[in-house]
Amino acid sequence: MIRYLNNLKLGQKFRLLFIVGVLIPMLITDWMILSNIIEADNTNRRNEMEKCADAVEYALQEHLEYPVTIAHNLYKSQVMEDFLNREYTSPGDYYEAFYRLRSSLLFDSNIGIEGGTLSIYADNPTIVDGSGFYRLDREIEWYKAFESENRQSSLLFPYETASNTDKSLKRKVVLLMRMDKGKAGGCEKILRIELDYVNLAEALEGLDSVNSSRQYLVCQDNTIVLTESSAAEKFQPYPEFEKIEKGSYRKNIHLYDQDLTINVLPDKDQGIMFFRANGRRIFLMILANIVLPLIMMRMIEISITRRILSLERSFESETEDELQLITRIEGNDEITGLIRSYNRMALRMNELIMTVYKDKLHEQEINIARQNAELLALHSQINPHFLFNALESIRMHSLLRGETETAEMVGKLAVIERTYVNWGEDSVSIGKEMEFVQAYLALQKYRFGDRLKFDISVDPDCEQFGIPKLTLVTFVENACVHGVERKSTPVWIFVRASKQNGKMCIEIEDTGEGMDEEELKELTDKIKNVTIEDMKNKKHVGMMNAYLRLKKITKGLVEFDISSEKGLGTVVRIVMPLEIRI
Length: 582
Prior knowledge:
By secondary structure, this protein is of the alpha+beta class. 51% of the residues lie in helices and 18% in strands. It folds into three domains: 9-312, no CATH class; 317-382; 423-576, Histidine kinase-like ATPase, C-terminal domain (Heat Shock Protein 90), CATH 3.30.565. The relative contact order is 0.06.
């Protein structure tokens, strides 16, 4: 982990610290706080939904309380019991008893029930239908349903015709109760209270505790019998209950032997209401726990990294002459102290650099002067001491006498001397240098005759590459002096130039006397470690001169090697870069 952190930039470390040390703990804390807020909000909503269900239940009980009280009073009345059980001899006998009942009980079919009616059905064939009393018909649908349930009472929500005269269908609320007091000695009696559905629905809609934005459903089995909009739907069939929405509150009630379910639905805009109620608190929590720490972390990061980057750029300045000073110094902390220390160090370093630079410049001027002196000394070593006019007179005199060969040799010698005198540039193409070598070897062959044979081969691709002037002829001259002169048998001299492995390779080989191992080592050491003082000696000065010039023109990249064996010959091998092109 430490190795990983060491590879991160300072800004990345700050961001990692913020994420791990601040953001993640804050998110966990905020999540716990938000969870508590949501849980508390859900609890409050559930309490509200529970209160709504209790209010709906209370409204139902309150709306049914008065007709049920009347029903119980009639149920307990002995006068009513006797009236229903008596067998009447004629309709007149029945109406006489009915008027006595009305005067004693003040009985009426509505009995003060707003929008509702009360009816009593008795299994007494002598009763005349009307005015709230009816003969019991066991084939009627509501009786069959009530009988099949075998209950003492039942609260029903039928969808049937409005009346005998009005055949339109509408929703109804019906309360059925058995009047079985003294049943052993009397007939079967059922009390039926039919309430106005609209009055009940409007009573529920007017509840102060029921919020208009919260929906509730009163269900009987899988049928929705009451909702907050039931009053406007009294002529429509009861809808089926599909499924309970997530977050709903469900309360089961038992009302007059009837099982009902009150389902309170959650608010449709519950999320919006939650954020309206808690949005400011959540915003402040995010602002305090995330935004403000992020801004502060960013400001601290900028305060540190900007100054450290400025210090890093000063260290990485590409200026070779001096270190750059940091002119803008901000703050008064440890980084500021580090920047001031850097400026002090930079001033000291710049002073030292200027001192060393001046000393180095003076030394370079001395070296340049010395190299110029060395070059003049090298030039003086190869300047000729012959006069071209004298050579030309000798050549013409030889031609007049018919000595053609002598005239040709004098002409070649003049070519060589002109090359010495007309120095011009220090570099020459290999092709031109080989022409000079050809002339020199031809002149030497005139001297040695059959004792000297030579062969010159140059790859065409090598002819235009540059080489220091009069270097190859120096090694060829050494082969003639130390090879041919010391050996009585014929000697071959080979001069070759070719490209090998991306470099220029030149070989001067002779089959002369050669050197033993000690002489070879001494010569190699002298050539490779030559100085201007060594040039004052006369021995091998030409080869040392040539090597020194090769070394200068190739900036020390020349590879020089001499191999020799006593009695067999010597090979000089020169390898240098191809970039030296004229």
